[in-house]
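Encode chain A's predicted structure.
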Amino acid sequence: MGWLDAVTGRRKRVGNDLDALFGVPGAALTLQTAAGWTPTGQGSVCYRAAAGAAFAQTQADITALIQDDPQAPDVEVTRDPFGFTWLVVQGDPDDLSGLCTDLHAVNSSLEAQGFADGLLCSMVTFVGHGRTVGLVYLYKRGTFYAFAPTGPHQRDNLTEIAIRDQLAGELPMEPDLQKWLALWDAPGL
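Encoded structure for chain A:
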């Protein structure tokens, strides 16, 4: 931060790096071998839907793009109680690379059409130890964190921190714990 930014109270916006999503398959191997978490094949992108025909057409084009493959994954668009839209992709658990490519395409398409301000996060889900955990990519921060719900509005912070520590060398992990959003009622969790 420069002195002018300090005086005016402005901060440089942290840039995202959507290509970091392509690091998830390697990180998944670490999670599977070191901690017993296996991918479910489900991933999602959370965003605030814009009003209007342009956004509706963009969302329809994205869904068609993902489903344009002979072995296309299932795609569903849902809304959560907080007003966010989730584009959920359910594919083969053994094809995590394909899932991450689809999530990258969703984010890139929304960004290219001018809807980047509405992007919140992307999530890939894992299962193990009798429950589900989400590996979350914060779009505006360009970092990852784990979200491990244990019940209605309860989470397992120790598991989240353990996953952070296991993946620190493979993915850009979010250092500020206050940015680790609770994704209550997120699809797949």
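The CA atoms of residues 15 and 94 lie 30 Å apart.
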